[in-house]
Amino acid sequence: MTLMITLLAAVVASIVWYSKAPNSTFSIGSLALMYWAATLMWCVDGIACLVEGEAFIEIADTAAMLDDAVLGLVVVIVGLAVWAVINIARDPKRIFSKALTK
Amino acid sequence: MACFLVSGGEAIVVTAVRAAVKKSEQKKGIVDEKGKQITDPAEHGICWTRKLGWLMNMLWGGVLLLAIEHIWHGEVVLWPPFLTAASVPGEMATVLHEMATVGVAMAVLVTVTWLVVTFVADAVVKRSAKTEAAKEAEL
């Protein structure tokens, strides 16, 4: 479920990036790349699980699936938080610098 | 267990390489001090500072999100020795094996995907330049 939620976040971020392109003021492309890379890495992890005889995505155990879903949401929120911190630090519209120097 | 550390190592190397490439491209007048391309990508291709920036974002982003997953599962802790397996005798061999197999595969897959993206991006930029040139010739 973590993989599926991150994949969904990557698709949504990519659609937003595409609809805003070529304007990239808030670096949505970076957020999309972050989610895509994590999705790829978890795909490898899933394949490794398959090789070891486990499931690619845990769906048999409801408790484990729910735990994975919550983890997926946490991962998406952390990704958004990192992206927000980067944008606050970069201040692409110079809002903070203008407000502080006023 | 610690598979993301391989990509973390690659991210450190790529960050250092990008800084060196940015310096070099800045001297050649390809990018400005912020790393933004000042030459025409349609004519000269997309600069390597930008391309390596994509790989850097992928690697650091992936490493961060996978680290969250490892912390969630209790495989990584925020105090020494950081890896839970390091305090269990004989577990470090399993960790190293996972890094050599799953970790390397993750880093390779991300890098290969990035390579494909850079080739496609360059092809798209060149094709759009040719289309614009053809339109101008028709006019």
Tell me what the structure shows:
The complex is a heterodimer of chains A (102) and B (139). With 102 residues, chain A is mainly alpha-helical. Chain A has one domain. In chain A, 77% of the residues lie in helices and 0% in strands. Chain A is built from 4 helices and no strands. Chain A is elongated. In chain A, 28% of the residues are buried. The model of chain A has no long low-confidence stretch (mean pLDDT 91). By secondary structure, chain B is mainly alpha-helical. Chain B has one domain. In chain B, 73% of the residues lie in helices and 0% in strands. Chain B has 4 helices and no strands. Chain B is elongated, with a radius of gyration of 20 Å. Chain B starts with a helix and ends with a helix. The mean pLDDT of chain B is 90. Chains A and B meet through helix 2 and helix 3 of A and helix 3 and helix 4 of B.
Q: Any chance you could write out the topology, listing elements then pairs?
A:
The complex is a heterodimer of chains A (102) and B (139).
Chain A: H1 2-20, H2 28-51, H3 62-90, H4 95-101
Chain B: H1 4-27, H2 41-44, H3 48-72, H4 91-138
Helix pairs in contact in B: 1-3, 1-4, 3-4
User: How many DSSP helices of chain B?
Assistant: 4
What is the strand content of chain A?
under 5%
The greatest interface here is: A-B, 25 and 23 residues
Number of domains of chain B: 1
Termini distance of chain A?
48 Å
- What's the total number of strands of chain A? 0
Topology pattern of chain B, helix = H, strand = E: HHHH
Helical content of chain B stands at: over 70%
Question: What average pLDDT do the residues of chain B reach?
Answer: 90
Rounded mean pLDDT score of chain A: 91
Order of helices and strands of chain A: HHHH
Keyword list:
heterodimer; A: 102 residues; mainly alpha; 0% strand; B: 139 residues
